[in-house]
From TrEMBL:
Stated name of the protein: Uncharacterized protein
Keywords: Membrane, Transmembrane, Transmembrane helix
Keyword Transmembrane: yes
Transmembrane segments: 22-41, 116-135, 150-171, 183-205, 211-228, 240-257, 287-306, 311-332, 363-381
Length: 390
């Protein structure tokens, strides 16, 4: 009873957020503000990256290695990656992985190189708020609106404090471009038109190949019915087929470019094994920080599927999570890699909504919110010697 009274009191105090014409935007701005305060107060050393970014862009007029390759690729897509040309770049280096990440170079090619590091970051910030708005609209579709605005706030505030949330457009000044892939994956489940889904998946894949691996969650989304009843039926949909065809098309184009331009290989099994070995030294820490408090939502969703005997969906969702997490561990940046699986969070919310009472779901999302807000992201997290988690 006491906890219920506290939640009721919290809801009254948050009434200014949860009412009015622009209540969604108020929730989003407060959630992003919470992320910035918690994340940077938890590790102020992250500000070093912003100081260096400002100095390079506006004082020294220099580019870091990633920005420099994006600029070169905007002129000649494969300048650094032709056979025998600058093949001295080790395969484990981030620069060596950029040859098929052509979305950002294409933007620079279209809109120009002048201060492109600054305007790319500004574009991500601007679209980031749209991204959270679309996430909120999906959550509203799952939870309902008027009677569940407090639950919506708990979810969005908790989600925004993940790297897959506000972290992807606030912290990514490198730029890796993860935010754009997250946005395109979201649009692949937001719209129902198979042609749009095909196109958005293509855009996501050309941002980063991690999106290809995690497109499995788009297929799961469109393969199981998401009606408000408890009938999670398997169905072959045109949307799921469009996602699969988009992945096959991307792989075909990659193969064609590799053979036609004689691009040297940067994939080595030995490197994957050594990277995996290094990452599992902090297995629990890295896995936890992928989803923070939202793990509670995911794990309960899996338990519900088991108890309700939805074994096909359980196998698909759990198997995909295990597979994509394993891929993240061999792709070096575990936190970034796991964040590409963020659609599993929305799928789990959908499952919990179908089987939990409103009170149970309210307590669950409150706990997820508190844990996520109190846990800073590992991205740009510096420790002694300048070494950083990812």
């Amino acid at each position: 009873m006491y906890i219920e009274a506290l939640i009721a009191d919290l809801e009254k105090k948050l009434s200014f957020l949860l009412s009015g014409k622009f209540w969604i935007w108020k929730i989003i701005f407060v959630s992003v503000f919470l992320f910035v305060v918690v994340d940077f107060s938890g590790n102020p050393s992250k500000l070093i990256y912003y100081r260096d970014f400002y100095d390079n862009e506006f004082v020294k007029g220099e580019l870091d290695s990633t920005h420099a390759i994006i600029r070169e690729q905007s002129i000649d897509y494969f300048a650094f990656f032709r056979s025998g040309k600058d093949a001295s770049i080790p395969s484990y280096k981030h620069e060596a992985k950029l040859k098929f990440r052509l979305f950002l170079p294409t933007l620079v090619r279209i809109f120009g190189q002048k201060h492109f590091a600054a305007w790319l970051y500004g574009l991500a910030i601007a679209l980031g708020f749209l991204y959270l708005y679309l996430i909120t609209k999906v959550v509203i579709k799952i939870l309902g609106e008027k009677e569940n605005r407090l639950l919506i706030f708990f979810f969005i505030a908790g989600f925004a404090n993940l790297y897959a949330g506000a972290g992807s457009f606030i912290l990514d000044i490198s730029p890796y471009g993860d935010f754009f892939a997250f946005l395109f994956l979201l649009l692949s489940v937001y719209f129902k038109n198979p042609l749009l889904i095909f196109g958005f998946c293509q855009l996501a894949f050309w941002v980063d190949e991690r999106a290809l691996v995690n497109a499995i969650f788009v297929i799961i989304w469109w393969t199981f019915s998401i009606l408000p009843d408890k009938d999670l039926k398997f169905k072959i949909s045109t949307q799921a087929l469009a996602t699969a065809i988009s992945g096959i098309f991307y792989l075909g184009v990659r193969w064609y470019l590799t053979t036609s331009y004689k691009l040297y290989d940067t994939i080595y099994i030995g490197e994957f094994i050594s990277t995996f070995y290094e990452n599992i030294k902090m297995l629990s820490l890295r896995v936890w920080f992928g989803f923070d408090g939202m793990w509670l939502l995911i794990l309960l969703g899996l338990v519900i599927l088991y108890r309700e005997k939805h074994y096909f969906l359980l196998t698909a969702l759990a198997g995909s999570l295990i597979g994509t997490i394993a891929f993240a561990f061999i792709a070096y940046d575990v936190n970034r890699g796991m964040s590409y699986s963020y659609l599993a969070i929305l799928l789990s919310l959908m499952i919990c909504k179908k089987y939990l009472s409103e009170k149970e779901l309210k307590y669950l999302l409150l706990i997820c919110f508190i844990v996520s807000v109190l846990t800073p992201t590992l991205n740009k997290f510096r420790v002694v010697g300048g070494w950083q988690f990812m």
